[in-house]
Amino acid sequence: MRGLKVRLWQAGLLVAFLLVWEWASRTGRIDPFFFSFPSEILKRILRWFSTGEIYPHLYVTTVEMLLAFAIGTLLGVVFGLWLALSPGVAAVLDPYVKALNAIPRVVLAPIFTLWFGLGILSKVALGVTLVFFVAFFNTYQGVKEVSPIVLHNARLLGAKRGHLLRHVYLPAAASWIFSSLRTSIGFAVIGAVVGEYLGSAAGLGYLIAQAEGVFDTTGVFAGMVVLMAFVLVLDALVGAAERRLLVWRPKGGET
Q: 74 and 4 share a domain?
C-alpha cells in the first residue's frame, strides 16, 4: 500500500505539472513557440511510434548505449579491482586517473569524431569515457571497504588470492558496482545522444538536433520525453536485476 501511495503521488505531480503547462500555453502565460503544448508533444510521440519513424533512431541509440555501457562497466570494474588490490600501482597511477577524470567529456566528442568518424564508434567511445570512471571509482571504493577482520578470518581458513577475490572482494563490492550501474545507464545514454547531436545520421540525438535546426520545439521536447522514458525503463531493468542477484543484502530497516 505504501508503494501504491507513492506511485499515486508521483502520477499526481506529473499530471498537475502537465495540466498547468497546458493551461499556461493555451492562455498565453508562456509562449508556446518556446515551450509548445504537452498535448502536441504527446501527439508527436504517438505519431513517431505509430508510423515507425522513431524505431531506426531508437535502435541506433540503443546499440550505442549498450556497447558503451557494457565496455565502460567491464573496464571500470576490472581496473577498479586491479588498483584496489595493488596499492603500489594505485599510488603510481593516482594522479593520472584524477587528471583523466577531470577532462570534460564533451571536449572529447569532436576528437572521437575525428578519429572514428560519424558512425557508432565515436559515440561508443564517448559513452565509455563517461561510464568507465563511475564503475571504476565505485568498484575501487567497494573493495577498499571490505572489513579487515573478514579478510583475516578468510586467510586463517586457508583462502588464497583467487578465493578472496571470488568470495570476499566481489560480493563486498557488488552493492557498489550495482549502484554504479544505475548511474552508468544515464551516462551511457548521454554519451550516445551528445555524440549524435554533434554529428550523426541517425539516433535520438540526431532527431532532436534536426528538430532544433528548424525551431520545432514540439519535436525537441518529444525527443527529450522519449529519452527520459528510455532511461527509466533501463533503470528499472537494472534495479530488477540488482534485487534478483543481491537477495542476500538486508532491506531497509533490517539488520
A: no
